[in-house]
Amino acid sequence: MKRIVAIANQKGGVGKTTTAINLAASLALADQSVLLVDLDPQSNLTSGIGLKNEAVSGRTVYHALTSDTPPTLDSYVMPTAVSGLSLIAADRNLTGAEVELINLPQREFRLRPLLEQARSKFDFVFIDTPPSLGLLTLNALTAADEILIPLTCEYFALEGVAELMTTLDRVRGSLNPELGIAGVLLTMADSRTNLGRQVAHEVRSFFKDRVFKTTIPRNIRLGEAPSHGLPAILYDVRSKGAEAYIALAREILTRGSTADSGPPETSTGNYDA
User: Fold this and answer.
1) pTM
2) Number of independent structural domains in the chain
């Protein structure tokens, strides 16, 4: 089944962009066809995949959202350095999109027609969202089959999650009743600290089987790779960060889709950090 996944959490610094780049690259190198969509006005995804200076004016996600005519997918898709991985880029024009979308018809559904075209071309579509619950994120949730929620293993990990879940329920109730939860991903994990273990325990107690077994450790290579315009799997495949995202890709393929909006099945995969 073709899957459109929004990577969302209104808190910043939780690893949304890092997850989008490295999970997508890991799946692409596992012979999946993958499309990344940069829906964050900071355009860190576009930069982190090495295409910041390659985005063509008039062919970014901003123009797709605000166009008066139905956008054609092929006009916006760019190839990346990873075979099987493509990108719909963002640029600074996206900063004003929240304001412009307010007065446009079907303002919460502007992204969906574009990504529906991707179902026949890609196995996975990942949408990187901004750290807010505004119209850009609503467009992602309306277009997606599932939401993947990164959470840091820190004291305020669950702060704002209740608001996100409330937004998710509202989207299901009025905009996208089929929206499921792909899973909750623990990021920046450090099992050596009492706090890290405690937060991981609380998150698993709250979300239960929705939490991926794979966790993403704190890893310097994950921070260095975007400055080279590469996913960690190409920058340093032997790093703990790259290994973790490879394991996450394997778990997602094993787990399958949760588009029925129910809790995902518990994966049988394991990751040994």
Assistant:
1) 0.91
2) 1
